[in-house]
Amino acid sequence: MPHTPTPMPRIADVAELAGVSVSTASKALNDTGQLREDTRTRVKEAASSLGFVPGRSGRGQADTRTYTVGLLTTDSFGRFTIPLLRGVEDALAAGRMAIILCDTRDDVLRERHYLQSLQDRRVDGLIITGRTTDPRPSIGLAIPTVYALSPSVDPTDHSVVVDESAGAAMAAEHLQAMGSRRIVHVTGPERHHSASARALAVQDVLGQSLITPPLFGHWSEEWGRHAVDMLLASHPDADAFVCGSDQIARGVTDRLREQGVDVPGQVRVTGFDNWDVMAMASRPPLTTVDMGLTELGRLAGSTLLDLVEGEADPPRRQELPPRLEVRGSSL
Amino acid sequence: MPHTPTPMPRIADVAELAGVSVSTASKALNDTGQLREDTRTRVKEAASSLGFVPGRSGRGQADTRTYTVGLLTTDSFGRFTIPLLRGVEDALAAGRMAIILCDTRDDVLRERHYLQSLQDRRVDGLIITGRTTDPRPSIGLAIPTVYALSPSVDPTDHSVVVDESAGAAMAAEHLQAMGSRRIVHVTGPERHHSASARALAVQDVLGQSLITPPLFGHWSEEWGRHAVDMLLASHPDADAFVCGSDQIARGVTDRLREQGVDVPGQVRVTGFDNWDVMAMASRPPLTTVDMGLTELGRLAGSTLLDLVEGEADPPRRQELPPRLEVRGSSL
């Protein structure tokens, strides 16, 4: 945190004085959300009495900008954050903004510490991201904020997400179009939104062509190999695997080859993520869904610039379509 | 870049006025490097006449610090930067410093642009890193700077590196200790320092136990598989593979299994990197060299704090020992 001899009043102080939550105080000051008018008035009076300046909303106060954006991730700079960050950087460079990176490591205390530090630094805006597509709590600060990949549970926040259901549907439709009719779905833990949402979409598209309920397990090659052993015993007539990730698909492809099953001649396989070290090293290379995370990062960055500069009113929720990358595993 | 109504004189201006390179000007102002005394005096006079403030050296001017560090990487936030960044963050958090991340994408113009932007932001220090262990040019700025993983070619700069030769030697010694006597080395492109330095160390340790010169190729699974096909034809009596990376080792292990060769029963295999998605998904899991990049990041961060706070005089070059992670592929 920077050296701050005279701490400024924080939104938490305003919220406490007004007797509301930080999230409500934020919405009252930003004129967003659905609040009773007297609540909004009470919060604004509390802010005024404390001398609270409502954040870096940027509208009409460009000279106070720090040209700095905080990027908060739970992904420990993992493989989802990396391509996303590249897109954010592209978009923000156009606005001459620098990115301060904060890795919360899924720790609520670290997240709070970083948010305080970023407020103290008077960042112009925040991008919040993570390793999953599960919705996450709103941070509820009076700073322009965009949630990327992991949307906010609060529909009045600005979230940019990938339509992963559409991605899973694309893979399933592709297998049907290629002629597969006895299809299975092997994916990650059911409690993960990425697994449950993709499984629903696959079931919707395939109907009777899905010959067994989705198999939920782990996001690993080992689970892919185990699933093949189970399915060759119980459903030896399966002619295609829709997999929930490239790691699973790689395990499936390896095990099928080891069991003498030709991919794609006898069984077609699709993955999800287009993670090059998995998809390209697979034999054959994997047909897979690319979520377009760099594109998503660009959209997050440009949406944040719109909010900071106050020149446009971006939609609260923006959803990007993924695309299917067709390779040898499904032809 | 931030809004800067009155641009400050830059070290390039000082260098131009004094008729020296930026790198020389930096050394003169920092009292480092080996320079003639009249050169040093000329640079200091030029700085004084321009009103140049010599960087964020921090000595005795803690109140002007921005508590911000620029981290410049060529690795596009890849898998080498990720663990390193985690360590840098650990060390700098202790000094209440935030990290501004800049991805140069191996582009000299991007690098120059970012360095200018970070100077304009008056960062307290810089950490320069990349995806290779090849030495890189000095940036030559009058800002405390630490080079991590990729050292500076200038021995008066501060570099923290991993002793990768020691790592390769550890793997080779381990195979000898396990009883292997007919060993081969399969690695990446000879022009990469990582490949040539490790190959030399392996040759030194193994002597006559290395039954063929190192095989240089690519950092890929496919190259590992091809190398097995070549070596099973030319040296069917090989009893161990020292591999230059985990990706190569995984390809080697897969191909040996497919050819009916038992790992580790007939042939032992070691990798390099301890990259979990490769090392743990391999069958059996890989014995491999862990470069300790998070530890290296911590050392880079604490060295930079020492330089910024001016309370210690860290060595110009610090080398960390890697460690061998022993798993099923070599037992």
From TrEMBL, chains A, B:
Region Disordered, annotated ranges: 310-331
Source organism superkingdom: Bacteria
Pfam families xrefs: LacI (PF00356), Peripla_BP_3 (PF13377)
Keyword set includes Transcription: yes
SMART domains the UniProt entry points to: HTH_LACI (SM00354)
Keywords: DNA-binding, Transcription, Transcription regulation
CDD domains the record matches: HTH_LacI (cd01392), PBP1_LacI_sugar_binding-like (cd06267)
Stretches assigned to the HTH lacI-type domain: 9-63
Biased composition (Basic and acidic residues): 313-331
Keyword Iron-sulfur set for record: no
Protein name: LacI family transcriptional regulator
